[in-house]
Design brief:
Strand content of chain A: 5-15%
Strand order of the largest sheet of chain A: 1-3-2
Oligomer: homodimer
Number of helices of chain A: 6
Order of helices and strands of chain A: HHEHHEEHH
Structural class of chain A: mainly alpha
CATH topology of chain A: Arc Repressor Mutant, subunit A
Largest interface: A-B, 59 and 59 residues
Largest sheet of chain A: 3 strands, antiparallel
CATH superfamily of chain A: Winged helix-like DNA-binding domain superfamily/Winged helix DNA-binding domain
Number of domains of chain A: 1
Radius of gyration of chain A: 17 Å
CATH class of chain A: Mainly Alpha
CATH architecture of chain A: Orthogonal Bundle
Chain lengths: 146, 146
Amino acid sequence: MRVQSSCYCTNLRRAAGTLTDRYDEALRPAGLRAAQYSLLAQLSRLGSANITHWARYAGLDRSTMVRNIRLLRDRGLVEPDVGSGKTFRLSPEGQAAVERAAPLWAKAQEELRAWLGQADADALIRISRRLQTLDTPEEGGGGHAL
Amino acid sequence: MRVQSSCYCTNLRRAAGTLTDRYDEALRPAGLRAAQYSLLAQLSRLGSANITHWARYAGLDRSTMVRNIRLLRDRGLVEPDVGSGKTFRLSPEGQAAVERAAPLWAKAQEELRAWLGQADADALIRISRRLQTLDTPEEGGGGHAL
DNA sequence: AGTTACACAGTGTATATACACTATACCACG
DNA sequence: CGTGGTATAGTGTATATACACTGTGTAACT
């Protein structure tokens, strides 16, 4: 029997793990994990980006992004831009994977919204976004954080 | 500039990462990460537990728990029970670490509650707990999940 | 030309996590 | 006694994440 923790951090970590598993499962037919789809969708929006910018965009450490990109490159989903060896874009395969995954993602989103209810779904987004500003006091968090 | 994702999963994952970093920092003087403190506090409540029960209690995969326990054992924070080689308990060092960490954790909790406000803090716990039931339809989630 | 500063890429090492699989051990039933 | 089933522990392999550090290249200033 799972314990009911009163810790904000533990509860959020567990919830994130559970939701990640759910999205991983939803995206499995497209051959992508939730984190990978998120990265590819970001690159699709960016068009092309170097590691530093992409990492900032994703809210990840640069070293994490280096390794994430390596996996995506090894699978042929992203490729270096021809002109600059330092920026990346979606490969045709990556583009195809994003297109396969997009409706699966949308379905997972809708099912989760239905399960949570609109109010909790909205609160989830709102509070998650607030929490993301905890470590970036300069952008939108109000400066002094705690 | 960090993008504003509309994905429930991505937002929750980022929020969990940010909050984990915050708690890791708060607990650093005690020499524990957030995940480790969570596990030790659980074991403290359980008194003694085998891997399977502890993993269920923590909402983690058993294999994850095997590796988490190895780290805690290597640091001398938990030890096998004398009678049964299969159950673990806090070592005196583990007990001391939990006692060092507890007030740091409480301070982080209070600071976060103050920063979020009581309403959002309550919503965070409530919604996180609901989400944790997504993958365990038999306990409290309502059976059919989505 | 030299050096200093900065931006960017990359590596070493560690933690945290899961799925698929293997190993062990005990127990019950024929 | 053997065999098969359940419970438990553990390993192999992979992903995702961060911090601390190293490498590289360019531009700017003296």
